[in-house]
Write a structure and sequence with these properties.
single chain; about 325 residues; alpha/beta; nine-stranded mixed β-sheet; two-stranded antiparallel sheet; about 35% helix; globular; binds alpha-D-ribofuranose; binds calcium ion
Length: about 325
């Protein structure tokens, strides 16, 4: 077997982050060195507790590092961050939301995060490395932006940075922006302009990486803790997307597994399609396009391209890799 790919995951565990983590921790082709958590879907205390719960489910001895509790600056102005997409709705007397405070499918964690902060862990680990670590960031990019500002030397030590974020013809949290970039636009712009080798997996790809009832049934018939938890998280997400965010590129009764696609892109890059080398900037002006990923598609432009962005995905390949890997759990 070829050498494992060393990865660090940066997460804001929520439902789809949890499925992405299970995939990464179970995949024999990846060596997860550590997991950093950040404020995003939930406060960082919640994203950290949920991350610990998933690590314990997999009985994985992976260190978890608590990260930034707030975006760099975007929440300092009360009138900024006016999301136009709901966080929850009440349907048939039941509150439906994207991410519950805690992954209640799993028991409270018995382990704790490491004493070092996520930012210090990133800096220490990357500087001590041979430049052979891939970072998979599926959350607001606050941790990475702070680490890059604190010690710019880490940029040259990151082998590759795979980011779930942004959108070209797709958005979610506002008419212009995707959540991870919108939550901390300044951090996203710092990271995208860092000079790292970046693969961006935006909503144009992840909205096509959807799973539905068939995948949920497959997971449940595994009769394993991983299968049951993944099916429950998927069912919960399907309910949320049906109620709050029906997609124009996915059938009803499905949910996009955003973060799992970013992990799959490290394992099997062919799951992505229409990958282009483009200039991408993030608007942080605080206006109607705040947090928007602005992709320059002009044939001649004065700004050099800075990311490889995937605008499509091979859903069947993605689902096969995801289910095969989750099915490997005992
Ligand atoms: O916009 C999708 C992203 O926002 C995913 O990472 C999901 O977990 C949420 O954080
Ligand atoms: Ca996420």
């Amino acid at each position: 077997m070829s050498e494992k790919t060393k990865v660090i995951l940066d997460v804001d565990t929520g439902s789809d982050d949890a499925i992405a983590m299970m995939l990464a921790l179970l995949c024999p082709r990846l060596e997860v060195l550590g997991i950093t958590t950040v404020n995003g879907n939930l406060p960082v205390s919640n994203t950290t507790e949920n991350t610990l719960r998933v690590v314990e489910l997999l009985n994985a001895q992976i260190p978890v590092y608590l990260g930034c509790a707030a975006p760099l600056v975007s929440e300092l102005l009360p009138q900024r961050h006016l999301r136009s997409a709901p966080l929850s709705v009440v349907t048939n007397g039941k509150t439906v939301c994207y991410h519950r405070e805690y992954l209640t499918e799993l028991p409270a964690a018995t382990t704790k995060p490491q004493p070092r902060s996520a930012v210090c862990y990133l800096i220490d680990t990357l500087l001590a490395s041979q430049g052979d670590i891939t970072i998979v960031a599926v959350a607001p990019l606050t941790n990475l932006a702070v680490a890059m500002r604190a010690d710019p030397r880490i940029v040259k030590k990151i082998k590759r940075l795979v980011i779930m974020g942004g959108g070209h013809l797709q958005s979610n949290v506002t008419s212009a922006a995707e959540f991870n970039f919108w939550k901390d636009p300044e951090a996203a712009q710092i990271v995208l302009q860092s000079g790292c080798d970046i693969l961006l997996v935006p909503l144009d790809a992840t909205h096509r990486a959807y799973a539905g009832a068939a995948e949920s049934r497959f997971l449940r018939q595994l009769h394993t803790p991983v299968g049951d938890v993944a099916a429950s998280l998927l069912d919960f997400s399907i309910e949320a997307y049906n109620a709050m965010e029906p997609l124009d590129c996915a059938p009803a009764n499905t949910a996009p597994l955003h973060d799992a696609l970013a992990v799959c892109a490290v394992i099997e890059p062919q799951v992505l399609g229409n990958v282009q080398f483009r200039r991408v900037d993030v608007d942080f002006s605080g206006g109607v396009c705040d947090g928007m990923a602005v992709i320059d598609r002009r044939m001649c432009t004065d700004k050099p391209a800075n990311v490889h962005i995937a605008l499509d995905c091979d859903r069947e390949r993605f689902i096969r890799l995801l289910l095969d890997t989750l099915a490997s759990a005992k």
